[in-house]
Amino acid sequence: MPDTLAYLQEVNASFLENLKDGDVETSRMLLWNVLEEIAPRVASAASDRHACEFIEVLVDHMSAQQLRFFLHKMEGYFSHLWTNRYSSHVLQRLLSKVGAIVGNEVKGEADDDDDPDRAADVPPMSSLIVTMCSEVQAEWLTLINDVSASHVMRAVFCALAGRAPVLEKRGKKGKHKALQFQSAQTTNAESVPREFEDTLSEMLELVLGSSDGRLVELMSDAHAGPVLSMAVRVAPTAVQSKVIFKLLKWNDPERSSQRFYDFAADSVGSHFLEAVCHSCDEDVWAAIFERCLQGRLLEFSEHPISNFVVQNFIQRTPTSDLNSRLTLNVPGARIVETLLKFPTDVSEPIWASDNQDAKLALFEKLQGQFGSLVLDRNGSFTVLKCFDVVSVAEKRKKKVKELFSDFMDDQAPKKKRKHDKKDGKKSKKKAKADE
């Protein structure tokens, strides 16, 4: 391995120098030479703490053919590569590039045919991904909560759904980058073959076939929980509904409501509910709100974790009718307690939204409470937002004092007392003069 490491270090420096000089052809040939050199020991090289850093740099610049060649040479080692701390990063980086390549294959567009002889016996990228998933099929239930493999599985889910994860560096000293999902609102899904949908469904069906107790454990697991959240975000609608209803035990109204409550208060499970909120269709959203949240918003808002679930449901209200029903569920009299209790409160998403009616409705619910709110560090934010909601015309008519009367009234006695003191001093002076 030391020889391979020294080789990769030397090649990496030459490769980056060629890129800097704009020598594309030399860089392309250099990449092919590296791939052929490390092909017999690709698994050990990708699993090495130091070598994997150089490989990740090279993966960033590989053509579609080179990526297919590289992934093809890994066959037979995927169980190890998924669970190894370093090779899992290499796989994540490679999988982040799969979407566009498979999309072109589905459309029948030509590959970047830079060296047909070297890639002659290499299958299409879509076949390679399905083969990789099949190779570790017997281990899916153990890989889902493995510290390294769970990250690869999330990247695989994105690839199978045609979504591109975003690579972000983690920590100031982090040498590797972690995958972060970008939602459907900000990215367009690439076309995927039917085999991808079947593979994704098969993987999730196997997980959902676990016992109910096991599923609850997975939902609270720091590694498996994010995998299931990713599945909800990227899976086709039919598969997505199966995942949601199975994990929430939807066929039992009482248990499903309690399970939502338990997940909302869990540091991992709450992220699953947030993913559900932003990914499900209107009917599923409404059904969950009616059964699990309606009439209980304050109860959820008073918890340091579940209040974030409420915020997400407020942020993403599918229709104006549902928005009205949600706003009516925000209690005016007791929500002040919540606003004073948590720096990030349930009202902030309403102020951040474009729904003026919802803002005014919340404003009306809070009238009479501004005196309490303005004296609190957290509540003062709400008072400022309420002031912003008031139209310029209302402000010009000097109705602000009337609107915020409870706050103004609290301040009035102080001014009066000062005035009384001045009158008292004058009366004393007058009394002395009379003497």
TrEMBL record:
Any GO molecular function: RNA binding
Highest rank taxon of the organism: Eukaryota
Record's GO cellular component terms: 90S preribosome; nucleolus; preribosome, small subunit precursor
Region feature (Disordered): 411-435
InterPro entries named among the record's database cross-references: ARM-like, ARM-type_fold, NOP9, Pumilio_RNA-bd_rpt
Gene3D superfamilies registered for this protein in UniProt: Leucine-rich Repeat Variant (1.25.10.10)
A Pfam family the protein falls into: PUF_NOP9
Biased composition (Basic residues): 414-435
UniProt entry keywords in alphabetical sequence: Repeat
GO biological process: endonucleolytic cleavage in 5'-ETS of tricistronic rRNA transcript (SSU-rRNA, 5.8S rRNA, LSU-rRNA); endonucleolytic cleavage in ITS1 to separate SSU-rRNA from 5.8S rRNA and LSU-rRNA from tricistronic rRNA transcript (SSU-rRNA, 5.8S rRNA, LSU-rRNA); endonucleolytic cleavage to generate mature 5'-end of SSU-rRNA from (SSU-rRNA, 5.8S rRNA, LSU-rRNA); ribosomal small subunit export from nucleus
Keyword Iron: no
Protein name (record): PUM-HD domain-containing protein
Taxonomic source organism: Aphanomyces astaci
